[in-house]
Amino acid sequence: MGRMYSAVFEGVAVSAAQDFFEVNAPADAVVVLPGGAGSLDEFFEVLTWRQLGLHDKPVIVLNIAGFWDPLLKLVDHVIDQGFAAPDLRGYITVADTVDAAMRALRDARSARSISAE
């Protein structure tokens, strides 16, 4: 019974990662909006893939009214305790307003256009 569950779980995980790359291939960036457990899961998954070099898209955190401040402090704490390299924080762009997020998206798109030439 444990083997069957393990096999199913592995299939779902691979499918989720594959779906992300297929759906988001043309995207210029990943924007993390305020949300719950699903948003947290996707944030850490995308951040980990960025750290591993599986994608080069900016990870933009829309931090309206400081919603994600505890998350950003957690990332800093993990780095400070030596469990992640300091460059992990560099993969995260924090935008405190929608306008700032739009600027970050334009910058990401411009950078991707320049690197494609």
What order do the helices and strands come in, and which of them pair?
Elements: H1 2-24, E1 30-32, H2 37-51, E2 59-62, H3 69-80, H4 87-90, E3 92-95, H5 98-116
Explain this structure.
The chain is mainly alpha-helical. It has a single domain, classed as Rossmann fold (3-Layer(aba) Sandwich), CATH 3.40.50. It is 62% helix and 9% strand. It is built from five helices and three strands. A three-stranded parallel β-sheet has the order 1-2-3, with helices on both faces. The protein is globular, with a radius of gyration of 16 Å. The chain starts with a helix and ends with a helix.
**What is the beta-strand fraction?**
5-15%
Mean pLDDT score, rounded? Answer: 83
* Contiguous helical run count: 5
CATH class reads: Alpha Beta
Number of strands: 3
- CATH fold category name: Rossmann fold
Judging from the principal axes of the Cα atoms, what is the shape? globular
Radius of gyration: 16 Å
End-to-end separation? 53 Å
Structural class: mainly alpha
Judging by the overall fold, what is the CATH architecture? 3-Layer(aba) Sandwich
Strand arrangement within the widest β-sheet reads 1-2-3
Q: Which stretches are low in confidence, meaning pLDDT under 50 for 5 or more residues running?
A: 1-13
Order of helices and strands: HEHEHHEH
Largest sheet: 3 strands, parallel
Q: What is the percent of helical residues?
A: 55-70%
Q: What number of structural domains do the residues give?
A: 1
